[in-house]
Specification:
The protein contains 13 helices and ten strands. It has 385 residues and is α/β, with parallel strands linked by helices. It folds into two domains: 140 residues, no CATH class; 208 residues, Rossmann fold, CATH 3.40.50. The strands form two sheets. A six-stranded mixed sheet has the order 6-5-4-7-8-9, sandwiched between helices. It has a four-stranded mixed sheet with strand order 1-10-3-2. The two termini are 73 Å apart. Keywords: Cell membrane, Membrane, Transmembrane, Transmembrane helix.
């Protein structure tokens, strides 16, 4: 399960802007690329800008209707007078056009000041996100049969080689999980403790062979006992190659055993059923995989697989029993276990929020002060006439 927790960092003041940032009076702040980076905290304030446009248009329409006009005739009575007055009249018209355009300078400054004030109220921000995934993971012990019967070739190249390859692929698919390795034949040995050093685990898996244990037979009960003892150990031990500190919540980690064998329990000092009950008492789930075909004529006695004990201990351990009759089926079994045994992942999302409203507030004040200057000086009176 993916649980996402969002953390907001406090808003940074304007004096903490990065050094290479453009000054507030730069036109860079009005470029489309810059505006695409913004996220507005209060976007509703931007919808008031069209309302300001409508108010200015309404004011212009009312003033135009109320303004008094005096029409003057500039034409002469004689043709000579018309020809001599063309040049001054054209200059006068040009001057009046320039004056007419300058009349819009005051309302335009007021409009820009109000609009930029609304932009500042909308609070443009740049949000930078950083995601961090955390998971306690689970403990997995792999118990693999390395007896002589695992050299049978009903799985190519043989049972042990197929199990070795698929187990390495299974290790590659894990994340934040501790994995250990137990090998067994007539006896059981802990080959690798619980660790998150997956390269080490794959190295041990690559070295598995049928000559590792001289004692013949299949000690399933002893193998389960070795797995249980490893899982009962605290996290921070000298045997764990990657643990640096004690995890106070280690007792809450999920624990599973994946036992892979091709025969019945024929050796060892501990009954598999007793070992399975002991695993259940420690909240350890058991998954068992029977490797090979059910009946196969061979010179080894273990060529005939007895599924009964493997099914029984899987049922006691609240896990599951699987049969792998070929490499593809074995790979599918590990894939299914991989899906079933997933630790919950908690995703932390850190947001670095930086406000830029002050820049547009400075622009708004500049335009409003410019409008005030035009209104209260002789230039304002000239433009109004």
């Amino acid at each position: 399960m993916d649980q996402r927790i969002r953390h907001h960092r406090p808003h940074q003041p304007s004096y903490l802007y990065r050094r290479n940032m453009e000054p507030w009076y730069s036109l860079h702040w009005f470029s489309p690329d810059q505006w695409q980076q913004f996220r507005f905290a209060h976007p509703l304030a931007l919808y008031a800008i069209p309302a300001v446009v409508l108010l200015f248009l309404l004011r212009y329409y009312i003033n135009r209707q109320a303004r008094q006009r005096l029409n003057l005739s500039l034409g002469g009575t004689r043709s000579g007078q018309r020809s001599t007055s063309r040049l001054p009249i054209s200059r006068e018209v040009a001057d009046r056009s320039l004056t007419t355009m300058l009349r819009y300078l005051l309302p335009l400054s007021v409009f820009l000041g109000i609009s930029l004030t609304l932009v500042a109220l909308a609070r443009p921000q740049i949000v930078r996100q950083q995601r961090e995934e955390q998971s306690k993971g689970i403990d997995i012990m792999l118990a693999i049969d390395v007896s002589s019967s695992m050299t049978e070739r009903d799985l190519l190249p043989n049972r042990l080689a197929a199990a070795r390859q698929v187990a390495q692929t299974f290790v590659n698919g894990r994340k934040n999980d501790r994995i250990g390795l137990v090998v067994f034949a007539g006896e059981a040995f802990s080959l690798c403790p619980l660790t998150t050093d997956y390269a080490l685990i794959k190295q041990y898996l690559g070295e598995l062979n049928s000559n590792m244990i001289a004692t013949s037979g299949t000690a399933i009960g002893d193998a389960l006992a070795r797995c249980i003892n490893r899982m009962r150990e605290p996290l921070a031990t000298s045997a764990d190659t990657t643990s640096n500190q004690t995890d106070s919540t280690s007792s809450k980690r999920s624990k599973i055993v994946i036992l892979l064998s091709d025969g019945d329990n024929t050796a060892g000092n501990l009954d598999p059923v007793t070992a399975a009950r002991l695993a259940k008492a420690f909240d350890i789930r058991l998954y068992t995989i029977a490797v090979g075909r059910a009946v196969r004529s061979s010179r080894t006695a273990s060529a005939t697989i007895d599924e009964g004990i493997l099914k029984t201990i899987a049922g006691i351990g609240d896990g599951g029993f699987f049969r792998a009759t070929d490499v593809g089926r074995l790979r599918a079994i590990f894939t299914r276990i991989n899906r079933l045994e997933k630790a919950p992942v908690r995703t932390y999302v850190y947001e670095d929020v930086q406000d830029y409203y002050r820049i547009y507030l400075y622009w708004a004040i500049a335009f409003l002060l410019f409008a005030l200057l035009l209104k209260n000086t002789i230039y304002g009176n000239i433009l109004e006439d």
